[in-house]
Amino acid sequence: MQSDFDIAIIGAGVIGLSIAAKIPKKFSVIIIEKNRTYGLESSTHNSEVIHAGIYYKIDSLKHKLCLNGNAMIYDWCEKYGVHYNKIGKLVVSLHDNESETFENAWELASKSGANVRRISKNELRKLEPSVNIAAGFLSSNTGIIDSVGFLKSLEFVAKNNGVNFGFNNNLQELNRNSKFFKLGVIDDDGSATEFTADIVINAAGHGSPNITRMLGYPLDGSNNNFPVFEQRINKGVYFDIINSKINNAVHHLIYPVPKNQKLMQNYIDKVGGLGIHLTKTLDGIIRLGPDTEWIKQRSSFSFDYQNSDNKLMNFFNAGKEFFPDLKIDDLVPSHVGYRTKINVLNEEYSDFLIWVHNGYVHLGGIESPGLTASLAIADKTLKLLNVS
Ligand SMILES: Cc1cc2nc3c(=O)[nH]c(=O)nc-3n(C[C@H](O)[C@H](O)[C@H](O)COP(=O)(O)OP(=O)(O)OC[C@H]3O[C@@H](n4cnc5c(N)ncnc54)[C@H](O)[C@@H]3O)c2cc1C
Predict the structure, then answer these.
(1) Correct CATH for 89-140+231-342 of 3.40.1190.10, 3.30.9.10, 3.90.1150.10, 3.40.630.10
(2) 5-45+149-228+348-384 has CATH 3.40.50.800 classification
(3) Is the C-beta atom of 369 inside 6 A of ligand 1?
(4) Ligand 1 pocket, 15 CB below 6 A?
(5) Same topology for domains 5-45+149-228+348-384 and 89-140+231-342, yes or no?
(6) Euclidean distance between CA atoms 259 and 281, whole angstroms
(7) In this predicted structure, what is the pLDDT of residue 298?
(8) How far is the CA of 41 from the centre of ligand 1 (A)?
(9) For residue 363, which atom of ligand 1 is closest to its CA?
(10) Is the CB–ligand 1 distance for residue 291 below 6 Å?
């Protein structure tokens, strides 16, 4: 008996869609998504930054796939007309007493292979006259992208290649026999459907550990034959600046190094992100954030994408570090995202997890720079599966 599909992908976020778009036409493919359409979770609740790869542990998957993905995503945008702006990013210290952290950030960046250069105080004043910067370096391959446009282009290519889309289908059962995988989905009316596939690619973001559990793999890393699949959640909130005078006066993304810290990577691992920084949308609006907040409850956590406004004062204070004249009315609550991080043991580095086992692929911990790295992650996944 033959299976219904060669390949089933679970999750139509940027990772599932990138893989779907890159699978050669000769394979029969289905992509299953529990929501009514693609990209409603992390893939559209992020900073929309095309990262250059400067903050990650050298030679980690995050580092290598970000560097490759950066070039690939710009090429893709050109080819498919996705809106982007290679605006450049300044990593800065806003105060003279942050030089140790700044030098550590520079050391990481200068070893990363990304295109970075130190900027003199004079040039900083010319590049960003409205922000008082003590020291800075420029990452010129950092940009911003229309994430929805990117997802749309991936869906377009996948559909053109004959990929089947199953929206409103929540994967509830997954098991394998000696021949293939059996998948059980429930649609939004509560009807159950079963089908089979030779290969299953789990690109379910926050839902990926649950799917791996269905196959009986241990999640917590206690068995040395398997990696840790469990994930932690870290919430990030944004506020936008709606004062056009301020918005028009800023020309780059600006990432201040954290205060009272020595090592950038230790800081990122501890708090779960880079701390509140300044990005711009393609419409020219300054977006402050995302901040960081570990979510303790994990198993039954429900993702609320509303910004309740209760962090306004934190953002006002962070914004005043850049713009001393900022008024509280210049800020409005913007979106909310949830980072997904592998719950590493023994303070290991929390890297992307791309794990292949007998036709099953688990993609875990695909937090930032997952959007940037998506096309490179897709290539790596298909290479590991010998799908070409
Ligand atoms: C606050 C924040 C800021 C970020 N900023 C950036 C940035 O500037 N640049 C960058 O490169 N990256 C950034 N990222 C990272 C990037 O957004 C993610 O790496 C990327 O979106 C992950 O995509 P995904 O497809 O793995 O996950 P998702 O987009 O979450 O997709 C997973 C999909 O699987 C579906 N699913 C789950 N369970 C099931 C099931 N049982 N059955 C069917 N479907 C299921 C979900 O509904 C979802 O649609 C940021 C992330 C966050 C949270």
Answers:
(1) 3.30.9.10
(2) no
(3) yes
(4) yes
(5) no
(6) 26
(7) 62
(8) 6
(9) 26
(10) no
- pLDDT tens string 74-116: 999 999 999 999 999 999 999 888 888 899 999 999 999 999 9
Q: Helical H runs in the chain?
A: 14-22, 61-80, 99-111, 121-127, 147-160, 208-214, 244-249, 264-271, 312-322, 370-384
Residue 164, helix vs strand vs coil: strand
> How far, in Å, from the CA of 40 to the mean position of ligand 1?
8
Q: Relative to the CA of 204, which ligand 1 atom is closest?
A: 34
Which residues does 102 contact at the CB level (< 8 Å), separation at least 6?
91, 92, 93, 134, 135, 257
Average pLDDT over residues 202-228: 96
Pocket test for ligand 1, best of 167, 367, 374 (most atoms within 8 A of CB): 367
253 lines ligand 1 (CB under 6 A): no
Residue nearest to atom 27 of ligand 1 (CA): 205
* Least confident window among 17-26, 111-120, 259-268, 291-300: 259-268
For residue 145, which amino acid is it?
A: I
Q: Which residue's C-alpha comes closest to atom 9 of ligand 1?
A: 49
In the chain, what are the domain boundaries?
A: 5-45+149-228+348-384, 89-140+231-342
pLDDT digits (tens, 9 = 90+) for 288-335: 999 999 998 766 788 999 998 899 999 999 999 999 999 999 999 999
Rounded mean pLDDT, 17-24: 98
Round to whole Å and give the CA distance between 76 and 17. Answer: 14
* Shortest-distance atom of ligand 1 to CA 238: 1
Burial readout 343-372 (b: 16 or more C-beta within 10 A, e: otherwise): bbeeeeebbbbbbeeeebbbbbbbbbbbbb
More confident position, 31 or 266 = 31
Q: Residue 45 Cα, ligand 1 centroid: separation in angstroms?
A: 8
pLDDT of residue 321: 94
Gap from CA of 150 to ligand 1 centroid (Å): 14
Average pLDDT over the chain reads 95
- Residue 371 CA: which ligand 1 atom is closest? 11
pLDDT at 269: 80
